[in-house]
Amino acid sequence: MMPHTFHIPVLGLGYSIDTPIKVAKYGISSVASIVDDELIERMRMHYARQRGEDDTPITKTEPDYRSRRITTYLDLMHRIVTEEFENLKNQPFGSGSDIDRYFSLLPADSELKIRYEAMLALPDGVEKDTEGSELRAQIVPGSIDVNIMSKVDKMNTDSQGNLLDDIYTDALAALRGFALSRLSSSIILSAGMNPHLYSYLEAFADFFPDEEGDFRKKVILKVSDYRSALIQAKFLAKKGIWVSEFRIESGLNCGGHAFATEGNLLGPVLEEFKNRRDEMFTELFALYGPALESKGIALIHAPRTRISVQGGIGTAAENAFLLEHYGIEATGWGSPFLLVPEVTNVDKTTLNELANADSDAYYVSDSSPLGVLFNNFKNSTAEKQRLERIAKGRPGSPCNKRYLVSNTEFTTEPICTASREYQNLKIKQLQAIEPRPADLQKQIDAVTEKLCLCDGLSTAALMKNHLIKPRENSAVAICPGPNLAWFSGIYSLDEMVGHIYGKIDLLAKHLRPNMFINELNLYVDYLKKDVERHAAALNDKKAKYFSKFRANLLEGIHYYKKLIPEITNQTADYRKEMMAQLEAIEGRLS
Questions:
Q1: Angle at 325 between CA 323 and CA 326, to 5 degrees
Q2: Torsion of Cα atoms, 508 then 510 then 516 then 519, to 10°
Q3: Distance CA 70, CA 74 (A)
Q4: Residues of the chain with pLDDT under 50
Q5: What pLDDT is recorded for position 163?
Q6: Which pick of 179, 252, 399, 543 has the fewest CB atoms within 10 Å?
Q7: pLDDT tens for residues 149-208?
Q8: Cis (ω within 30 of 0) for the bond into 435?
């Protein structure tokens, strides 16, 4: 059981690439992306050199290089965390060392923290030494978890250009890299179902349980609604793969890619998981048990499933309400940790921009080559560079890493829609249309809005660790959630954790709406823009979609009106204001 009730989700390709090294020894779980094997390899060599270990590069000419790079880096992180945690456990109590920091970071109601504080108050002697030894034996490091975006799964070729077998696709190679590592932790699968990838989980024994129902490696699904969660989990259960956690994320009030649902708001989604949790478990286990039996695996105890939530949480009161009211096991705090330099990789320029930005700097864009909404930051150097390239008549980016190539409109081999090659070809095609459409510039702007994420989301990690090469692009793309606008400052780990648990209030100077209100406003704005975009050519299918979307929002408002009296950890004035905000939004929808 983890000592903390929060985790740090994946933050871009590089912002949390080594976060486990920084926080796991304090019992805090975090998630690193394993999409960018080039960044991973450079970070491995960086840490290996620091430790005096072998830093021989794993080159692209070697067999299964992507998988091997990932395995080797994860094993290195495992060694570092294990060594640092063992060192922490052996430090003296009461000296202000890391072991004291471990306990000070725990929530006030933690049994371990209560015992630790009582132990410190004891007089020196056998009793104090015994209690100290027992406390050392009970602490555990945080989990080193990893994330794969399921749909980032391009086919690859060998050095002669021959297509490789499908186990060498990007997603399967990344999964294999994790599966073959020494880690005993979780893989978070996000961005929807990939049957090819999900089926490959069966190839590794670590994803199957022992007799006690415990796993060496667990599967976590990041989801935004109950229905899609159940569909994905049933697919896996039939193959003997258990979902150990459903990580519910707000559709729009999150960082990174934003998967807008049909107006399915976070509160009602959590309520459905709460009410149907047992039903879901029963349905899944009915498929899972026979699947295990067919593989010759017998269970004495059924496996456990956690439910957590992330996206837009901003205060200790919100955090506590989510845990208590919905009966979930943990919350995720992502974007606020971008303002904690000792935890994440944000370069100084971007860090200062984030610390001083207002809400207008955060927006949902069509910048991602994946064709999925993307939370963007107007003040990023990558966004400034994109506009400068357009002004110079050279839109688009060089395509170096090719993780997001998918378009074959003009080429036999897939290319990226953020690439200079694609954007030049597409713009020429649009300009050749006769007669020229009235919205030609709007169509061109939609093409040039695409941004290179493969490089941009990794650059800050290279800059922070002094690994950027002289001729490399130093423009930084960053994708914080809009909730970050309420945080104005640069913080320590102790301050941010203290804020999460209510020890201090980093937002004391701000009159911030409840997270449910913030998400609701985002959805109403999204619907308004979508309606305006399709107003000129609205078909029946889209009209029905808008009608359902609006109905779901109104149903969500009705749910929140009933929920407000139950938010008893806030003041009566707070609840009254929340009700007034709901009625105002309801008026907008009408």
A1: 70
A2: -140
A3: 6
A4: none
A5: 87
A6: 543
A7: 998 888 888 877 888 899 999 999 999 999 999 999 999 999 889 999 999 999 999 999
A8: yes
Give the DSSP letter of residue 339.
G
> What distances in angstroms separate CA 337 from CA 147, 276, 332, 482, 521, one per listed residue?
17, 32, 11, 13, 24
Q: Are 420 and 400 in contact (CB under 8 A)?
A: no
Residue 329 near residue 477, CB atoms below 8 Å: no
pLDDT of residue 590: 83
Q: What is the reported pLDDT for 151?
A: 86
Cα–Cα distance, 10 to 492 (Å, whole number) = 19
What span, in angstroms and rounded, lies between the C-alpha atoms of 556 and 263? Answer: 8
Distance CA 191, CA 222 (A): 8
Question: What's the Cα-to-Cα distance from 1 to each of 74, 170, 234, rounded to whole Å?
Answer: 22, 32, 26
Judge contact between 171 and 153, C-beta under 8 A. yes
- Please classify residue 542 by burial: count the beta carbons closer than 10 Å to its beta carbon, then call 0-12 exposed, 13-18 middle and 19+ buried: middle
Are 326 and 268 contacting, i.e. CB atoms less than 8 angstroms apart? no
What DSSP string runs through 456-502? Answer: HHHHHHHHHTT---TTS---------GGGGG--S---HHHHHHHHTT
| Beta strand 374-377 pairing with 362-365 | antiparallel
Which SS3 state, helix, strand or coil, does residue 377 take? strand
User: Quick check: 200 and 183 in contact, CB under 8 A?
Assistant: no
Q: Which residues neighbour 206 within 8 Å (Cβ) at sequence distance 6 or greater?
A: 179, 215, 216, 217
To the nearest 10°, the Cα dihedral for 395, 400, 403, 405?
50
Amino acid at 100: D
pLDDT digits (tens, 9 = 90+) for 444-470: 999 999 999 999 999 999 999 999 999
Dihedral sign of CA atoms 383, 40, 223, 480 in order:
negative
pLDDT of 509 reads 82
As a whole number of angstroms, the distance between CA 114 and CA 103 comes to 9
Alpha carbons 545 and 262: distance in angstroms, whole number: 8
Binning the chain into helix, strand and coil, the percentages to the nearest 5 are 50, 10, 40
Residue identified by tokens 């871009």 is 12
Q: For the packed helices 440-448 and 420-431, what is the interaxial angle rounded to 10 degrees?
A: 170
Give DSSP secondary structure letters for 172-223: HHHHHHHHTSS--SEEEEESS--HHHHHHGGG-GGGS--TTS--SSEEEEEE
